[in-house]
Amino acid sequence: MKIRNTEVKVIQADIKDKVSLKACIIHNVNLGGSVRPDEAFIRLSCKRALQKARKIRVSCLALVVSGYIESGFPEAGIAKIMAQEIFRSLWFDAPKTSLKEIILITPDKSTYNIFNKNLLSYLSYITHKIQQGPFIT
């Protein structure tokens, strides 16, 4: 799915394997024990990763979703929150971004299916809804 000039995609991979991520900056959340993320935590974490990528002017950002999933937060919810933050960043900050690719890395087939369906379809819906209007004058 492409938003402005940035390709957004979901892949299934074990980050410990040698995944071919070209020159991607990898953002991985390590919650460490007692931290239990909520919507605000997931939103802020994703937003900061996107801001950091924009600030250091990288062309590829890989977001590893397994840290969020281990917390027990619903996967479809994580996908939609991340979709909103990715959209907000790309749609409103597009002229300022060097990002050409955002890759969401899922740990298994089940999570891949959930993210592929929820994140990409939600991004598509938001993008088309904004372009169609209604425009009140």
Key features?
alpha/beta, five-stranded mixed β-sheet, 5 strands, 4 helices, 46% helix, 137 residues
Major beta-sheet overview: 5 strands, mixed
| Number of helical stretches of at least 4 residues | 4
- Helical content stands at 40-55%
Low-pLDDT stretches are: none
Overall number of strands: 5
CA-CA gap between termini? 31 Å
Oligomer: single chain
Q: Which descriptor suits the 3D outline? A: globular
How big a fraction of the residues is strand?
15-25%
Mean pLDDT: 81
Structural class: alpha/beta
What is the N-to-C succession of helices and strands?
EEEHEHHEH
Kindly provide the radius of gyration, computed on alpha-carbon positions and rounded to a whole number of angstroms.
Answer: 15 Å
Strand order of the largest sheet: 1-2-5-4-3
Structure report:
This protein has 4 helices and 5 strands; from the N terminus they run E-E-E-H-E-H-H-E-H. It is of the alpha/beta class and 137 residues long. A 5-stranded mixed sheet has the order 1-2-5-4-3. The model has no long low-confidence stretch (mean pLDDT 81).
